Amino acid sequence: MTAFIRFEVIRTLRNVRYLAFLVVVPVLLYLMWGRTGGPGAMVAMAVYAACGGALLGGGSTIAEDRATGWLRQLRITPLADRAWLGGKIVQGTLMAIPGALVVCVVAASTGHVSLSVGQWAGLGVLILVGCLPFALIGVFGGMLFKGKTATVALMLLFIALMLVGGVITGGQQIVSWGNVVPSYDLMAAGIQIVHGTPIGGGYVVNLGGWALLGGAAVLLRWRRA
């Protein structure tokens, strides 16, 4: 399964659209308005990049593979169905790293963001673990739709989560129920880390709830496939 995950990660990183939308765009947004926003703006753009990578990294490739018949080819290989499913979830989660890492590097070098080693480590762990719900939702979307339909659906969902959760505005403007969506919880928890305050338990519970919901949806869809 490790070789499969490595193959899928490299394959996604070679996708120019992925690199442009989920690495270049958040970096440009940060450079345009985030450098004066302090560590909170960095967290918002890192969450933007990470959530998009997790949501689209695995889901869009599943939909493409279903449309091209690649999944049927995989079924005649020694790769078990469970290993494939687990590999796609891990792939989606790992795709949260590249964009978030680049945003943090840019923020540290141009935005004068200075955190302790513990804060950087805590933020990294939070983003990686906190993106599991997005990876699961992405896998579900890829299993539900085929081809470009899945990519469009996941893109629209991603934009909605960024707007409703206030990620685009760095948490300055959110709708009245925006604290329910996982994008808000991930951003708010990250901001608490960079400000040196304990993470609110409500954020962790909400992210866990979304992960359980996403996992249940994936399992139901997988069993019906």
TrEMBL record:
Keywords: Membrane, Transmembrane, Transmembrane helix. The chain crosses the membrane at residues 16-33, 39-63, 84-108, 120-145, 152-175. This is ABC-2 type transport system permease protein.
